[in-house]
Amino acid sequence: MHSSLLVNEPSYSNEIAQDEALDAIDPLRHFRTAKDDFDVHVKEPYLIPVQPRSVIDEVIQLSFPEKPIDGSQQVTVSLVVDASPGCGGVAWPAGEVLANYIATRGSNYIKGRKILELGSGTGLVGLVAGALGGEVQITDQAPLLGIMRRNVDMNRLQASVAVSELNWGERLSSEISQPDLILAADCVYFEPAFPLLVETLSALATCENTEILFCYKKRRKADKRFFALLKKKFTWREVDDDPNRDGYTREAISLLTLSRRIR
Ligand SMILES: C[S@@+](CC[C@H](N)C(=O)[O-])C[C@H]1O[C@@H](n2cnc3c(N)ncnc32)[C@H](O)[C@@H]1O
Known about the structure:
The protein is α/β, with parallel strands linked by helices. The chain has a single domain (8-260), classed as Rossmann fold (3-Layer(aba) Sandwich). Helices cover 29% and strands 21% of the residues. The strands form two sheets. A seven-stranded mixed sheet has the order 5-4-3-6-7-9-8. The protein has a two-stranded antiparallel ribbon with strand order 1-2. α6 links the parallel β4 and β5 (161-165). The radius of gyration is 18 Å and the shape is globular. The chain starts with 12 loop residues before the first helix and ends with a strand. The structure holds S-adenosylmethionine (SAM). S-adenosylmethionine binds at residues 86-88, 91-92, 94-95, 119-121, 124, 140-141, 144, 167-168, 185-187, 189, 193, 196. S-adenosylmethionine (SAM) is lined by residues 86-88, 91-92, 94-95, 119-121, 124, 140-141, 144, 167-168, 185-187, 189, 193, 196.
């Protein structure tokens, strides 16, 4: 992704104002529409099946990497999915892309690292990191903690995956320990939360060496505001060593690595 595409452009201002007004009425409306202004160019069928939004207490199994290469280890996670606690209760395509990427890098990349996932939802990405040998904290808002705990238990990952409440923009609790790898998937969708997410990323990435993998699905032009805020504290580049990149790029999903700006 080129950061030059993300600056505010005056010609978009009316559309952004309209987006904001509609967001105030229905913050999750982007998840309900089949297509939006960013997706109109997507001609390909979805590579990762779109999940029904009315899922209630179902158990699914997902394996990563989806296409193992050179005899690499495949991790299978059982996942309770339930849309009733909120949009995070189902597995989102960007989460599957991020889970697939870390599984493709394998346990050599993950083993022994202190990992924190923001906006974990079901916990999918963090569970894959835990199964690969990471010391993981999965975090989200209070309504999601129950489903996250069920998923940790179901996968018997209690020894490697801890569940904590973490509301973006709030002071970090003493439960949260400093990670060396931060994971976040599909966390850019509600404009009032943009500054809060940047604040939390800044509070967690205390040094330039903190690695951040940020998987993002473009939904609308107002998302640029998130990147305008992010730019003050971080630089970013596309992850270019993912063999599956062409597939998810067609779905308007980008996998970025963020770096803290040197002060
Ligand atoms: C679209 S879901 C993505 C869930 C998961 N990462 C995935 O890819 O399947 C966005 C997640 O961000 C969480 N979230 C939204 N606002 C938040 C906030 N202010 N603080 C913490 N988590 C938040 C939601 O609860 C939800 O689980």
